[in-house]
Amino acid sequence: MGNPKAFLSILRKEAGYRPISERIMDYSEVEQTLNLEDRKLQASRCMDCGIPFCHWACPVANRQPEWQDLAYKGKWKEAYESLVATDDFPEFTGRICPAPCEKACVLKLSADSPVTIRENEASIVEKAFAEGYIKANPPKYRSGKKVAVIGGGPAGMAAANQLNLKGHTVTLFEKNEAIGGLLRFGIPDFKLNKKIIDRRLALMAEEGVEFKTGVNVGKDITGKEIMEQFDAVCLAVGAEQPRDLPIKGRELKGVYFALEFLGQQNRVVAGKTFSDAERISAKGKHVLVIGGGDTGSDCVGTSVRHGAASVTQIEIMPMPPAHHNPATPWPTYPMVLKTSSSHEEGCTRRWNLETKQFLGKDGQLTEVEIEEVEWRQGETGMTIHRTGNKETLKVDLVFLAMGFVHPVHEGLLTELGVELDGRKNVAVNAAQQSSVSKVFAAGDAHLGASLVVRAIASGRKAAEEIDTFLK
Is residue 426 part of a domain? Predict the structure, then answer.
């Protein structure tokens, strides 16, 4: 390292967020950036540990100490090359990854002050784009083999990118009108501007990847046709079956899955219009978000930007510890209280609450009944006990943000006849190959709902295994 003792004299410095009063008025990215000199200083804090736990914790095995040192020395091109050697899309992970690498950083043990790994990553890739270091590099030779990648999320994009670079002819199918999956139709623009996705897609197209959008494989084109036309198939269809809440009043107007709301808003930002009857608007309404994860947080931030009268987020689980959780010690990912930029913008957060029923009038949601619960340690683990303490909330809109359970089976998966595992995901072997010989799976389709960075890692692995299979 150029400055092996920098961590002793330079404090962690985050770029921070734009002022709340400003950012809630638009859908531009909320996170700011540091100037390059400050960013170099932050990169210099990397200790170059004997055991790089950051590398161990990263699903794509980023070589953090290597590119931190290169960034500190101003070698941005080399730093980007090191980054992209393990991560196809550092511009995505540098913005939206929960950064398990930072949670495993040795400096987290020192005043909870890890290296700003995620922000440094984003700075490296943006500097590389700005300087023109990132250019299309199509393969010099083609194998003559054709691969269909079905699903345009981060796993499918990574698989398609890697397979194309290996010289295979790749067609990426996406049922929606644009590539990106949850990056485009789930994560709000204030966390990830969609121009960032389009910039990368333009490079992939220039390198030879063919994109077919608005094509629902299994419906618009059959699985049989795909199997006949391609030498290998990669299923990257995601885990799109949302967890529902089948309680009394679920049919009332005003109760929506989170992605119905988030996907529509992202389309509005992109320029699409909806009729008043179609539009899900939180303006002037009392909003209840059920589910305490990132998707729920995204519903909070979007509702605030709509001009909601109030936003409440509830979670059935107990409130996690604020800073340290003995159940998840370093260097594992800590299950602690997370306060997002959206929460800072205005939200009441409550825990240990179960939703009992939705109440309404003339088919329209008006109230939600909830009950306080307790979690107790039993012989087989934690068990839930209902206290009987109930209350009714005045609510105009409910967003169900309770996660996703497995891929949608109807259509393609049923037609192909791939076996499912115990969680109803696509069952695969160590090579991510399904029970159907030339069909592989990547991302949430076989992992279950997970992180973008794990989807990218899985897509890269699938591409490697498909390449071996084709040879």
Answer: yes
